[in-house]
Design brief:
Layout: E1 11-16, H1 20-31, E2 36-40, H2 46-51, H3 53-70, H4 86-110, E3 114-117, E4 120-124, E5 127-130, E6 133-142, E7 146-148, E8 160-161, H5 163-166, E9 175-179, H6 183-194, E10 198-203, H7 214-226, E11 230-233, E12 237-243, E13 246-251, E14 256-259, E15 261-264, E16 268-270, E17 302-304, H8 315-329, E18 344-346, E19 351-356, H9 359-366, E20 369-375, H10 380-384, E21 390-396, E22 401-408, H11 415-423, H12 428-432, H13 443-452
Bound molecules: 1,4-dihydronicotinamide adenine dinucleotide.
């Protein structure tokens, strides 16, 4: 479609957005011999690398180290916590991001993938325009991601911030109110408490991490109580007033909370406004771009990936979507990406990790189910690490394991085995016969399977 003098050579794939979904699609498409161009207005790597997963997990690691120092005497080590140096925390965090960013740029240049900087707009079903330059492709992939949402009456600015600004704080606040007790809320709440902040989390629903199996919410609330994190569930934000030395948050019903800062963590919305999607016939739903299971939008040749597509907003879902679409375009007929098979990890302390169906979801799907909860109290490695928690397995009655739900420090690292178990539709007997190394936390998955298979070892029948 060389309809303008500036028109570049035609591409096989034009990708709008260089975050997890977009860049994964580009790398895979290039491997498959497709001619690909990526349009990115910020930095290659997107939210996950620059404002999300990576920097927040670096903060959580600093937080973990602070907790270890604070608790050191309980394992016989003499050390004292003198304080948190936010500028050093930030240089550590920025160093991690910087190295990964450099690596990603290296991958792109080695693959000779063209990266066009600027804000792209869909101006035809096969064309993205960036600063007057038209990029045409046989296929277009929408990968513009999401942004932190707020609530009516909750203007972002000053002491009221989203995760974007909270990641840039150069001081440790003395107190914080976190609005929203799901993933972002509990991760930041956890970091700040470890840094010595007085934290109150306000969640409208009846429990923290409300998308998880209820047993994890209960355990997390208990653990947060032990950590003296204040949790207000069933409490809705109503208004906020900023004054010179702090903020006052009013909840529905009239209770007020005073703090230094407020974090708004009430979800992320789709980034699609003004990008021309609807004008070109792409059906959207409140800004999201719904797709079929092959990630096709309502316009032929236009795909959508990652956070823009309703469902789990996770970087690794974006990677999987991106790879899927590249392979689909190349005619490899890949297996669709199914949300329920995607592992989820929330990196607060203790960590929450899960894959597959919760107990109520499994009941609804299979009718009869069986569950087993293995308490980490019986797991040697967890005892050594002084963490509490559990592994809960959900299986279809006499059938495979369809859900794994875990809580405990470092249990996020066990999500790999959990994911293989669920996605390979393993039976408890299958997992039970694998020898799990001792003493590791993976044993807790083995022990839970042994128990469900009717032969518990370090557990009561
Ligand atoms: P979320 O959509 O998971 O949860 C928002 C929470 O805010 C809900 O629990 C909701 O009930 C609550 N809420 C809404 N209105 C409220 C009100 N008026 N008062 C009090 N509470 C209210 O959003 P979140 O935590 O902001 O995360 C956004 C996305 O980013 C999620 O999809 C999450 O999975 C993803 N993410 C993933 C991470 C990970 O995988 N470790 C880390 C951080 C974010």
């Amino acid at each position: 479609m060389a309809d303008s003098p500036e028109s570049s050579a035609e591409h096989d794939v034009v990708i709008l957005g260089g975050g997890s979904g977009g860049y994964a699609c580009a790398l895979r498409a290039q491997q498959l011999g497709l001619r690909v161009v990526v349009v990115e207005r910020g930095k290659l790597g997107g939210t996950c690398l620059h404002n999300g997963c990576i920097p927040t997990k670096a903060l959580l690691h600093s937080a973990e180290v602070a907790d270890h120092v604070r608790d050191s005497s309980s394992v016989g080590v003499k050390a004292s916590l003198d304080g948190i140096d936010m500028s050093a925390v930030n240089s550590y965090k920025d160093g991690v991001v910087g190295r990964l960013y450099k690596g990603l740029q290296g991958l792109f240049s080695a693959a000779k993938i063209e990266l066009v900087e600027g804000t792209g707009r869909l101006v035809a079903a096969d064309t993205v325009e960036v600063d007057g330059r038209r990029l045409t492709g046989k296929h277009v992939v929408l990968a513009t991601g999401s942004y932190p949402r707020t609530l009516p009456g909750l203007e972002i600015g000053g002491r009221v911030m989203t995760s974007d600004q909270a990641l840039l704080l150069d001081d440790v606040p003395s107190s914080a109110v976190v609005i929203g007790g799901s993933v972002i809320g509990v991760e930041f709440g956890s970091v700040w408490k470890s840094f010595g902040v007085d934290v109150t989390i306000v969640e409208a629903l009846s429990r923290l991490v409300p998308a998880e199996d209820e047993v994890l919410s209960k355990q997390l609330e208990r653990a947060f109580k032990r950590r003296k994190i204040n949790v207000r569930t069933g409490a809705k934000f109503e208004s906020v007033v900023q004054h010179d030395d702090g903020v006052t948050v009013t909840l529905e019903g009239g209770d007020t909370l005073d703090a230094d800062i407020v974090l708004v963590a009430v979800g992320r919305g789709p980034r699609s406004e003004g990008l021309g999607f609807e004008d070109q016939g792409v059906t959207t739903d409140r800004g999201w771009v719904p797709t079929d299971d092959r990630l096709r939008t309502t316009v032929d040749g236009v795909f959508a990936v990652g956070d823009l597509v309703p469902g789990l907003q996770l970087a690794h879902r974006g990677f999987a979507h991106g790879i899927f679409v590249a392979e689909e375009i190349a005619g490899l007929r890949p297996m669709p990406v199914v949300d329920s098979g995607i592992p989820r990890v929330t990196y607060c302390s203790p960590e929450v990790a899960s894959v597959g169906l919760t107990e109520p979801q499994a009941k609804e799907k299979y009718g009869e189910i069986e569950t087993y909860e293995y308490n980490l109290g019986g797991n040697g490695r967890s005892q050594i690490l002084k963490t509490q928690g559990l592994v809960k397995l959900v299986r279809e009655k006499d059938g495979p394991i369809v859900g794994v739900h875990m809580i405990g420090d470092r249990m996020g690292e066990q999500v790999g085995e959990a994911s293989l178990t669920v996605n390979w539709e393993a039976f408890p007997d299958d997992v039970a016969q694998f020898v799990h190394a001792h003493p590791t936390q993976t044993e807790s998955l083995g022990e839970a399977s042994l128990a469900l298979a009717g032969k518990p070892l370090h557990a009561h029948a």
